[in-house]
Amino acid sequence: MAKRRAEQDTGEQDTEDGADEPSGPSLFDWARLVLGAAWRRKAATLLVFLAGLGGSFGYLKTRRPIYRVETRILAQRQTMLPSAIKPTVQDDSPTRAAWDLVHRRANIIAIVKAAGLLDAPPPAGAPQAPPAEPVDRADPVDGSDARMELLVARVDSAIKVDVEEGTITIAADWPDPVKAFRIAETAMQNFLEARHVQEISAIDEVISVLRGRVAVLRANMDRVTAEVQREFGRDPAPLARGGETRPGPPSEETVRLKSMLDAKERAIQDLEEFRRRKLAELQAQLDEKKGVYSEAHPAVISLRQEIAARSAESPQIASLREEEKSLRQQYQARLAQDRAQGGQVVVAAPQPSRATLTTAVDDDERVRQARSEYQQLLGRVTAAEVDLDAARTAFKYRYSVIWPAEIPKKPFSPKPAKIMGLGAVASLLLALGAATLLELLGGRVVEPWQVSKGLDVPVLARLERKR
Predict the structure, then answer these.
(1) For the chain, how big is the Rg over CA atoms in Å?
(2) Quick check: 274 and 243 in contact, CB under 8 A?
(3) What is the reported pLDDT for 372?
(4) Shortest CA distance to 423 belongs to which of 37, 33, 58, 11?
(5) Which residues partner with 172 through β-bridges?
(6) Is 241 helix (H, G, I), strand (E, B) or coil?
(7) For position 68, what pLDDT does the model report?
């Protein structure tokens, strides 16, 4: 009786243990099946694996190499601003709007021309220009314009700008290493010139407004002084006694336009001097290379082409010349308008000097107030001009190239080790999957769990074949 009770307890325990058994195969079971299938179907596994490796190798050989050129610029904050414009111009981050300046359309077009992309045949795989429409058009599209648009879009996507903690990195990816170098170098130069124009022109415009205000205060001081002199006994009608008239002082708008015109001329001179220094450096490098290599060497040819590209006018200088031309026309028109209005001042005929009259005029409160306002603003303008000259001189130290662009010797992409490594892993997985699929489709049962899953009955025993 006790033995039968023990057998019943054992059966109930087995039933409970069987309920806890997993209903499907485990990960280990699947792994054993996959490895076994690969071992039993060696030929198929090896064939699929070699086919995957061949595909990876073919992709590596057929893909066109891409070369990357990088240049880094260290941008430091401006430590000193002109004292007269501190309330107006704030010291912002020097890396602000770096991406927008580099990717500006005018700069991209200048890069396309400087790199000689229009003269070279389109690279393999590049999008082709759409065919011209056969219908009548009032504004037919030129083939060169269509290709320029394609190159502008391609160069814009090829240039990468990364800003991080005061460092600006400009990178260019292109199938030709020499043209990749020109793209990155031209983008860097255009950025420096654009920042120079942006910073110096903003300060110059503020100083131009101050100079116009100084002219107004100077005219006001002269007018108040003349009124006080007449009040203290100066002859009110000097023309009847040998007095004369002279042209009056220029208006505030005329002085402002003249100051802005001078500022544009100085900015053009600065950029041209900056470009001349760069050309001198390139010419020195060319002379050094010519002493070592022949005229047909790629380094010599590249330097000659870069010098030719640098000799062309940059978009910043072209824009400044247009602004200078417009300001000159406005200034001439305003000056003619001032003369047409007959602005004149009356200058009295020479009279004996009287120290008492001069002292009385100088001590008058109105004259002292007008003179104080004029001298204060004139001092601010003078200090601003000195600080502006210092900022213009220190610009090259504020933006310094810490990693110059160089012609790459090997492609950046594709990378053989990466492609073949990933291809080998993918080929192995594909081969194992193919062997397992053939094993399952063949209907061959090799694992105990396949019996349990297919027939829904438990496996009682497993017989090992004796070798």
Answers:
(1) 42
(2) no
(3) 85
(4) 58
(5) 69, 159
(6) helix
(7) 92
Separation CA 97–CA 99 (nearest Å) = 5
Q: What is the b/e burial string over 91-108, where b = at least 16 CB atoms within 10 angstroms of the residue's CB? A: eeebbeebbebbebeebb
Q: Which of 343-352, 374-383, 393-402, 411-420 has the lowest mean pLDDT?
A: 343-352
Angstrom distances, CA of residue 351 to CA of 233, 235, 241, 243, 347: 12, 10, 10, 10, 11
- Measured in degrees and rounded to the nearest 5, phi and psi for residue 231 equal -65, -30
Terminal Cα-to-Cα distance of the chain (whole angstroms):
46
What count of other Cβ atoms lies within 10 Å of the Cβ of residue 163?
16
Is pLDDT of 200 > 70?
A: yes
pLDDT averaged over the chain?
75
Residue with tokens 């090259």: 396
Whether the upstream peptide bond of residue 414 has omega within 30° of 0, thus cis, is yes
Q: Rounded to whole angstroms, what are the CA distances from 77 to 82, 101, 166? A: 14, 18, 8
Q: Does 20 score more than 60 pLDDT?
A: no
Answer whether 378's CB lies under 8 Å from 370's CB: no
- Nearest CA-CA partner of 66 in 121, 123, 112: 123
Side chain identity, residue 320? L
CB neighbourhood size of 392 (10 A): 17
For residue 172, the Cα-to-chain-centroid distance in whole angstroms is: 11
Does residue 403 surpass a pLDDT of 80? yes
Phi-psi group of 415: left, alpha or beta (phi > 0 → left; psi -120 to 50 → alpha; rest → beta): beta
Instruction: Put the strands of the sheet holding 159-164 in their side by side order.
Output: 159-164, 167-174, 67-75, 399-403
Asked if residues 187 and 159 have their Cβ atoms less than 8 Å apart, the reply is yes
pLDDT of residue 50: 92
Contact partners, residue 105, CB within 8 Å, separation at least 6: 152
What's the pLDDT score for residue 127?
43
Cα–Cα nearest to 229, from 345, 352, 364, 350:
364
Give residue 355's identity as a one-letter amino acid code. Answer: A
Q: Could you give the CA distance from residue 55 to residue 233 in angstroms, rounded to a whole number?
A: 106
**Measured at the alpha carbon of residue 264, what is the angle toward residues 280 and 248, in degrees to the nearest 5?**
140
